[in-house]
């Protein structure tokens, strides 16, 4: 076999110039489009149109030879970069596909999606049957062409729709979620149909056998992906997260998996971009995948490759060639059929399932946006010889036009769509819980030490209740640090203890070492959002707050920690009464969030203490104004947290106490009220010698007779 060689020096030089030029132009025009209230993708496509034969390359051919590929090799090189953009864009689209969201809004999403699929398919197919022959790459294969155009017109562009909804602050509205769900259904079905059409494009005559074979391929591919494939990806994610140490290892895993799935899809004559889309969906269902991996992928895709892809798509558009009367009329017909099919189809589907006029029209307006995905499909059709160059240009122009329409039409229709009380309540709750510690907690590390005898799982019962109520689907790792030679015994202990965590995504690890703190901290470096530590022992010295190992973990942990202090489970557990002292700090708010999550049927009391020399009313002297402000602030603090609890359907009591030291008042209140649990919020104070959580927190820890949870969000 001959050793492969590099492309000619001049062709590589042209590629480098093209990438720099297209990236700068696409990003600049993308920013400009956003300044005018349009999605960035519109400006990115227009940048390619303006640089290509539509304008600059025609007016200045000497510049055009450095922008538009002039040889096959130059074209292939630029197409490879463009393919990377499409792959990365579809990974992000898959990651944004929320399957639970589709299930929650199944009826509405399916009704709207059905209308938004059927009418565009029918109208697009009929239109394509009567388009002139010169728009077909192969006039002998009009049926495949018609099926391709019909499928292309039925697609909605999830990235464009999502960007429009974000720009209009609609993503968390019920209608925004349902628009996304309907778009996801539309795109999923359309991609399946597209795969069948592409199979027919390479399979000779259109027969029932060919159709069944093409449909069977996509069904098998999707079925294996969402069963065996998901299992393999989950195991790979677990292995990379738990066993491999190194920067960006999970980013590499996601990208490699997308290209593996893409290779399989391409090998069976399904497009590689569909493989990337499926991998994005699969990883999107795994809470163990850190959000920073998604952000990095978005940075690479949106910041680099996708703009180049859209600019390359624009380069292929030749508007002057469409300015003949026949092509101009054809362009208007394609645009009219596309807008009519999607808007009227989605509107009809919405009305059929009982939605009102304006809500149904809003769905049609949003799903009419084609943008990114339409360009990908048009590019596929051009590369496979289904579309002519003129038909490609027409579809790209249609995609740009429909993307331009969506924001304005949505703004207009949604002025008439008023959220109901249930939605308003949910939106208020989300506003109150924005920035929540619990909202960004997906992966929890729980180090455990082996105990024997009666009550050896008492502390773990508290931790189990805590983890079980922090959120659904948390990924929990139980870590047992065993002495050398104690692996078998440690594994048996974890297996016995694991029964307490049956409802969680549970991993169990045993590490043999005499240095427990180092082992736990090494594990904590592996993308955990929270560490929960049990502290049942009394401090062994004045420089130790809990235990030397526990103190070192708290001091050096790379993520927030929760410390559960208590020896035996109280008579009533889950707790019946929870006390949350608060001073208005962010850490105290996090403590209240934990209390509300843990509450269940428990009674939560929010306590604010205004320090002073005596309790009760104060005389009107020189300090009365300051004291009144302190009391007013204290009432505002507990009232704000009370509203946060009400948004989560936890109705907490509030109490403001004046006088005495705060720690003394907290302990007295806990004893007098027979509280089962105290939850404290704090930020770790810097100290090179010992853990220091503040004198008040440490005084409460030392004096409390019930379990105490300390939320250290630093």
Automatic annotation (TrEMBL):
<feature type="transmembrane region" description="Helical">
    <location>
        <begin position="109"/>
        <end position="131"/>
    </location>
</feature>
<feature type="transmembrane region" description="Helical">
    <location>
        <begin position="12"/>
        <end position="33"/>
    </location>
</feature>
<dbReference type="Pfam" id="PF00582">
    <property type="entry name" value="Usp"/>
</dbReference>
<dbReference type="Pfam" id="PF00999">
    <property type="entry name" value="Na_H_Exchanger"/>
</dbReference>
<keyword id="KW-0472">Membrane</keyword>
<feature type="domain" description="Cation/H+ exchanger transmembrane">
    <location>
        <begin position="25"/>
        <end position="415"/>
    </location>
</feature>
<dbReference type="InterPro" id="IPR006153">
    <property type="entry name" value="Cation/H_exchanger_TM"/>
</dbReference>
<feature type="transmembrane region" description="Helical">
    <location>
        <begin position="212"/>
        <end position="233"/>
    </location>
</feature>
<keyword id="KW-0406">Ion transport</keyword>
<feature type="domain" description="UspA">
    <location>
        <begin position="577"/>
        <end position="711"/>
    </location>
</feature>
<keyword id="KW-0813">Transport</keyword>
<dbReference type="GO" id="GO:1902600">
    <property type="term" value="P:proton transmembrane transport"/>
</dbReference>
<dbReference type="GO" id="GO:0015297">
    <property type="term" value="F:antiporter activity"/>
</dbReference>
<dbReference type="InterPro" id="IPR038770">
    <property type="entry name" value="Na+/solute_symporter_sf"/>
</dbReference>
<feature type="transmembrane region" description="Helical">
    <location>
        <begin position="75"/>
        <end position="97"/>
    </location>
</feature>
<keyword id="KW-0812">Transmembrane</keyword>
<feature type="transmembrane region" description="Helical">
    <location>
        <begin position="297"/>
        <end position="315"/>
    </location>
</feature>
<feature type="transmembrane region" description="Helical">
    <location>
        <begin position="367"/>
        <end position="387"/>
    </location>
</feature>
<dbReference type="InterPro" id="IPR006016">
    <property type="entry name" value="UspA"/>
</dbReference>
<feature type="domain" description="UspA">
    <location>
        <begin position="499"/>
        <end position="565"/>
    </location>
</feature>
<feature type="transmembrane region" description="Helical">
    <location>
        <begin position="187"/>
        <end position="206"/>
    </location>
</feature>
<dbReference type="InterPro" id="IPR006015">
    <property type="entry name" value="Universal_stress_UspA"/>
</dbReference>
<protein>
    <submittedName>
        <fullName>Uncharacterized protein</fullName>
    </submittedName>
</protein>
<dbReference type="GO" id="GO:0016020">
    <property type="term" value="C:membrane"/>
</dbReference>
<dbReference type="InterPro" id="IPR050794">
    <property type="entry name" value="CPA2_transporter"/>
</dbReference>
<feature type="transmembrane region" description="Helical">
    <location>
        <begin position="45"/>
        <end position="69"/>
    </location>
</feature>
<feature type="transmembrane region" description="Helical">
    <location>
        <begin position="327"/>
        <end position="347"/>
    </location>
</feature>
<comment type="similarity">
    <text>Belongs to the universal stress protein A family.</text>
</comment>
<feature type="transmembrane region" description="Helical">
    <location>
        <begin position="253"/>
        <end position="285"/>
    </location>
</feature>
<feature type="transmembrane region" description="Helical">
    <location>
        <begin position="143"/>
        <end position="166"/>
    </location>
</feature>
<keyword id="KW-1133">Transmembrane helix</keyword>
């Amino acid at each position: 076999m001959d050793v492969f060689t590099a492309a000619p020096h001049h062709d590589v030089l042209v590629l480098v110039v093209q990438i720099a030029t297209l990236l700068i132009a696409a990003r600049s025009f993308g920013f400009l489009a956003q300044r005018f209230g349009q999605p960035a993708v519109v400006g990115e496509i227009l940048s390619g149109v303006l640089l290509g034969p539509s304008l600059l390359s025609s007016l200045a051919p000497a510049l055009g030879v450095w922008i538009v590929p002039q040889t096959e090799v130059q074209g292939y090189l630029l197409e490879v970069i463009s393919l990377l953009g499409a792959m990365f864009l579809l990974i992000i689209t898959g990651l944004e596909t929320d399957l639970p969201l589709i299930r929650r809004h199944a009826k509405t999403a399916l009704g709207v999606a059905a209308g938004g699929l059927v009418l565009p398919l029918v109208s697009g197919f009929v239109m394509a049957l009567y388009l002139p022959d010169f728009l077909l790459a192969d006039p002998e294969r009009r049926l495949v062409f018609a099926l391709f155009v019909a499928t292309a017109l039925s697609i909605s562009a999830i990235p464009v729709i999502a960007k429009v909804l974000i720009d209009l602050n609609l993503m968390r509205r019920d209608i925004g979620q349902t628009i996304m769900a309907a778009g996801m259904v539309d795109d999923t079905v359309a991609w399946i149909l597209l795969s069948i059409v592409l199979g027919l494009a390479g399979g000779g005559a259109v027969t029932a056998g060919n159709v069944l074979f093409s449909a069977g391929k996509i069904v098998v591919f999707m079925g294996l992906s969402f069963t065996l494939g998901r299992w393999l990806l989950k195991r790979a994610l677990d292995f990379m997260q738990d066993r491999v140490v190194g920067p960006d290892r999970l980013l590499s895993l996601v990208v490699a998996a997308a290209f593996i799935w893409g290779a399989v899809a391409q090998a069976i004559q399904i497009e590689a971009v569909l493989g990337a889309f499926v991998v994005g969906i699969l990883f999107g269902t795994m809470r163990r995948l850190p959000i920073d991996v998604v952000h990095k992928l978005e940075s690479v895709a949106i910041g680099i490759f996708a703009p180049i892809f859209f600019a390359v798509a624009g380069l292929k558009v030749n508007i002057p060639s469409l300015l003949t009367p026949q092509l101009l009329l054809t362009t208007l017909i394609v645009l009219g059929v596309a807008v009519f099919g999607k808007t009227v189809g989605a509107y009809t589907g919405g009305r059929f399932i009982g939605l009102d006029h304006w809500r149904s029209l809003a769905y049609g307006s949003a799903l009419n946006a084609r943008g990114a995905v339409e360009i990908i499909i048009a590019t596929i059709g051009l590369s496979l010889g289904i579309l002519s160059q003129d038909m490609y240009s027409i579809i790209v122009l249609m995609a740009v036009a429909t993307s331009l329409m969506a924001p304005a039409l949505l703004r207009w229709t949604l002025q008439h769509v008023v959220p109901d009380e249930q939605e308003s309540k949910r939106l208020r709750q989300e506003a109150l819980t924005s920035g929540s510690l619990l909202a960004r907690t997906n992966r929890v590390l729980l180090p455990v030490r082996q105990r024997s005898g009666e009550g050896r799982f008492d502390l773990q019962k508290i931790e189990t209740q805590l983890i079980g109520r922090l959120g659904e689907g948390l990924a929990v790792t139980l870590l047992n640090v065993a002495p050398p030679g104690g692996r078998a015994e440690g594994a048996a202990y974890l297996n016995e203890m694991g029964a307490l965590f049956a409802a969680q995504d549970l991993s169990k690890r045993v590490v043999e070492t005499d240095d427990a703190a180092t082992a736990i901290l090494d594990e904590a470096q592996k993308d955990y959002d929270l560490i929960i530590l049990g502290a049942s022992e009394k401090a062994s010295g004045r420089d130790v707050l809990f235990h030397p190992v526990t103190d070192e973990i708290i001091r050096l942990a790379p993520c927030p920690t929760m410390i559960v202090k208590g020896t035996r489970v109280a008579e009533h557990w889950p707790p019946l009464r929870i006390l949350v002292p608060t001073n208005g700090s962010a850490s105290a708010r996090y403590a209240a969030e934990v209390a509300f999550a843990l509450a269940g049927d428990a009674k939560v009391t929010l306590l604010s203490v205004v320090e002073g020399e005596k309790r009760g009313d104060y005389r009107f002297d020189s300090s009365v104004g300051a004291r009144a402000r302190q009391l007013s602030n204290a009432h505002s603090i507990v009232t704000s947290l009370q509203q946060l609890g009400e948004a989560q359907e936890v109705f907490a009591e509030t109490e403001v106490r004046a006088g005495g030291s705060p720690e003394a008042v907290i302990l007295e209140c806990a004893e007098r009220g027979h509280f089962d649990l105290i939850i404290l919020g704090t930020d770790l104070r810097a100290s090179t010698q010992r853990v220091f959580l503040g004198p008040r927190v440490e005084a409460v820890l030392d004096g409390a007779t019930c379990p105490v949870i300390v939320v250290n969000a630093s």
